[in-house]
Amino acid sequence: MLSAILARILRAIRQGRRIFHLTIAAIFLVLGGSGAVLALELWEDYRHTPSNGLWAFGAVAVFSVILVSFGLHSIARARSVR
Predict the structure, then answer these.
(1) Domain ranges of the chain
(2) If you write DSSP's letter for every residue of the chain in order, what string do you get?
(3) pTM of the model
């Protein structure tokens, strides 16, 4: 009886960890996607006025790639919770 209760508690904790990792992944992917949209807007601005330079576009693009990679890593972590 006690082992069944303990097993249910441990299963609930595992499910909670999976939900946590998937929530964090969703947040990272949404932020990375919005950063990608901003990077595209900065690219269009650069094409119209090249004197602005590529610094802002590059910084936002790299940051967006990092956020998306964090999101993908969180999805992998959610799938590997045992």
Answers:
(1) 2-80
(2) -HHHHHHHHHHHHHHHHHHHHHHHHHHHHHHHHHHHHHHHHHHHHHHH-GGG-SHHHHHHHHHHHHHHHHHHHHHHHHHH--
(3) 0.83
